[in-house]
Input
Amino acid sequence: MKKSLILAISVLFLMGSYLYADSSIKKILSIGANEPNYLFMTITGVIIDENKNIYVSDSGGPFLRKYSSKGEFIKEIGRLGEGPGEFSNSIGPLFYDGQSLYLLDNLNHRIVVIDKELEIKNYINIKGLKTSLAKLDDFYYLKSTRPGEPFQEIGIYDQSGKQISAFFNERPAFLREKLFNRQDYPVWMMYSGLAMDVDSESKEVAVTFNYPDEKIELYFFNKDGSLKRKHMIDNIFKYKFPEFLLKMPANYPQESKIVYIKSIHYLTNEKILLQYWVADYKFEKCQSEKHYLLLIDKVNGKLIQKFEINPSFEILSIRNKILCGREIEDDMPKVALYKIEGY
Amino acid sequence: MKKNIWRFIQLFLVMLTLWQSCRKESPLKYEFFSNIGYKNNKIIFILGKVIKNVEGCNTCKENQNTEAWKALYRVFRHDSDVELIIVGSKEPDDRLLALPADIIKYVDSAAPKNDIFYVYKKGKLIFKHEGKLDMYLIRDIMELMHQ
Output
C-alpha cells in the first residue's frame, strides 16, 4: 500500500514537472522558407512591436523586412552600399524603443533610425566600430574596445552621435591582476567581451561578461553610467575559466569545458534572462554542447530556474515575455518566437 | 659576335622571367567549367582569394560568400536537375571541405582575386557575377532558374 502510494506520488510529480517544464517555454512562430520573401542568410536582429508585427534585419540583404503577427511578409528595404537607403554587409543588432527601430550599420559608421512603416527617418553618424546597440530615453549605448586595451567599455552617445561619456572599466575575474601580452591581444579582447541590455522601465543597463569564471558577474548601471548594483552568481556547475585559452594559439588539454554567456535580457523589470552555453571539448574539438536559459532575480541575484533550449536558438530581443531570435531548422536560418509562460 | 651572344642571352633571360611570372599568375581558364558535371543546369562557384574573419572568432577565416553559397545550396539542393559545383585551387586550405556542394573540383591554377559565380541553364550561361553575392542576386538566380 505504502509502495503504491509512493509510486503514484512519484508518477504525479514527474507528470507535473514534465507539464510544468513544457508549458514554461513554447515556440509560437517560425518564419523561413525557400521562397524569396522568406529566405534568410544571416539574421542579425529580430524585433516584435506592440501590434505583434515582426521586424528582421539580415546582413545578407534585404537588410530589413517586416512581417505580420502571423508571419506573412509585408515589406522590405535596403540595398548594399553607402548611400541613402543603403546598408553595409555588417549590420545589427536591431533595437526598438516603442516608437522607432534603430539599426547599427557598422561599416557605414551610423545608426539608421527607421519608422514602423520601414521609412528611414534619420542617420546618426558615429565614429569607430561598435558591436552592440541599445537606447534609453535620449541616450544611445554602444559597446567598443577601450583605446590601447583589449577590454570593452560602454559609450553613451547623444542624439547627434557625439560621445558624452563611457563607463565600465571592469575586466573579468580571470583577467584581473594580470598584465596582458600584446601578442595575445585578440584573445584577451575576445574573452573580455560583454553582453548588455537596457530596461526602459527601471532606466538601467545590465551588463555581464560573455566568458565567466567561477562566478557570473552581473552589473546594473543607471542610465548615466553610475553603478547601481552588482551580483556574483554561482555557475550552474563547478567551473573555472580555462587559462590555456588566453594564449594564442591555445594549447588544448585532452579535456576541457567552455562556458559562454551569449546574451543578457530583461524578461521583466525584475527578472533577467541569460542565454548560457556549455561545451565539452576533447582537445580542440567540441564533443557536446548544451544551451540554457537562466532566469535570475535582478534584486537578489538568485537563480530562479534554468531551461535547456534548442542549441541552435539564439535570443536577439525580448518583448512582453516573447523571446525573438534566430535558429537553424532543417539546415535553414529561420526567425523563431518563443513564449515564456508562468512568470 | 660576343656582343650578339650576350644580347641573345639577355633576351632569353628576360623572356624566361616573363614566362615564369605569367605562368605563376596565369588566370584560370573558365571556358571548361561549363563542362564540369553532367547536367545542363548548374551553378558554379569559383572560390577567390577574398576571405574574412568568422563572426566571434578572431583567428577563424572563411570565404566572403560562405553564407551566400549555403543559401544557394539550400534553395537548389532539392532540385534534381540543378547541380551545385565549387571550383577551388589546391592551395593548402580546407575551406572547400566546409562548404556543401554536389561536386567539388580542384584545379592547379592560382585562385582568382575575387569569387565568381556562373549559372548555366540548358547548357547556356545565363548569369555571371563577380564579388559578393547578396540575397537580391540569389533571388535573381532563383527567378532565372525557375522561369
Q: What stands out?
A: The first strand of chain B starts at residue 41 and ends at 46. Residues 5 and 69 of chain B are 56 Å apart (CA to CA). The longest helix of chain B spans residues 2-25. Helices of chain B lie at 2-25, 66-76, 135-146.
